[in-house]
Amino acid sequence: MTAATPALPAAGTEAPAFSLPATSGENITLSSFRGQKHVLLAFFPAAFTPVCTSEMCAFSDEFDRFVADDVQVLPISVDTMDALTRFRDQHHMKVELLSDATKVVAQQYGVLWADGKIANRAYFLIDKTGTVRWAHAEQHPGLSRQNEEIFAVIKSVTA
Questions:
Q1: N or C: which end of the chain has fewer CB within 10 A?
Q2: Is 52 one of the catalytic residues?
């Protein structure tokens, strides 16, 4: 199984715009964070899977640390809103999860797998101007970055 094209948005380019429904019941628009916060987009393959559960709970556990670094974490999957809401509630997550059930945003960011069923696990750090500062896609969805690595990247590109 290989990741689909197009390529990931490169560091230094403008992040592709989107608006997606969130588990809060609101639509989240990337541009609403411009001039306000840095944004960490964290694409993940599927709710309720072991690696995704561990990763989303870690984001939630360190929610206050992301806030202190002026970073809004936006986890995105192609799961339905119902599945994401159950997932978030079951694990008492602080982070809101975004549903890309149409898979349009995963395609825009170059992370939709060739089979079209899931998004690969990938991370994009977008600064307050809307510019991609870091982009990383895992070689396969079973891998993930640890928060300490993500915090190091945040410090290196937002300081």
A1: C
A2: yes
Decide: pTM greater than 0.85: yes
**Alpha carbon distance 46, 154 (integer Å):** 25
Q: What is the DSSP letter of 147?
A: H
Q: Which of 52, 95, 105, 132 is catalytic?
A: 52
Angle between helices 50-61 and 81-90 (to 10 degrees): 60
The domains found in the chain, sorted by start residue, are 19-158 (3.40.30.10)
The strand pair at 98-99 and 122-126 is best described as unpaired
Q: pLDDT band at 143, cuts 50/70/90?
A: confident
Token pair listed for 133: 């500062």
- The whole-angstrom separation of Cα 79 and Cα 100 is 7
Torsion over CA of 12, 13, 19 and 25, rounded to 10 degrees? -10
**pLDDT tens, position by position, 52-94:** 999 999 999 999 999 999 999 999 999 999 999 999 999 999 9
CA atoms within 13 A on the CB side of 30: 22
